[in-house]
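FW: tagging you since you asked about this chain on Friday. Here's the raw sequence from the shared folder, copied in full. Didn't touch anything.
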Amino acid sequence: MNIVFDTVNVYYLPQFLPICEELNRRGHQITFVCYKNKNSEDKFTQVLTALAYNYHWVEDDKSARDYYVEHKPDWIFFGNAFAYLDEIHQASKTAQLGHGVGPKPSYYHKSVTPMTVRFIEGEFRLKKIRELYPNDNFVQVGFSKLDPLYNNTEAGLDYAKLGLDKSKKTLL
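HL: got it, structure written out here
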């Protein structure tokens, strides 16, 4: 399958990457669609190049929509609401995976524009959002940003590479 991650901001990556790695391991094609109007293209490109996944730059959500309509990925993962779902649902399925956890009120409003499926962290939030949007499709999952810790795959910090002295206490 061809799977795209709508990466509006670089800080979506910690939530998306554990999922990308698992999908890649299963043989799926991964592409990040990144927004020029939200990020430093040079710095973001350095990060994306190091990840060794395909990526494509767009100007804004309209050009992202155009890309999705033209390329027809099987699935598109979003970290937030997206205004053009009716158009992209003609050929693609969509999944919403929040890039953070749900203490903010906006967490519950993102379903005003329903995706094919929305992943929810935790039983309480799942119950609450099903009450608000009983006709939508929600699936309870963990917080993927923490998967590397639970799977014992988190490499930790390279103190020397960061210019830090391991013999000194460091607050991060």
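FW: The domain at 2-150 is CATH 3.40.50.11190 (Rossmann fold).
HL: agreed, and The chain has one domain: 2-150.
FW: great, closing this out.
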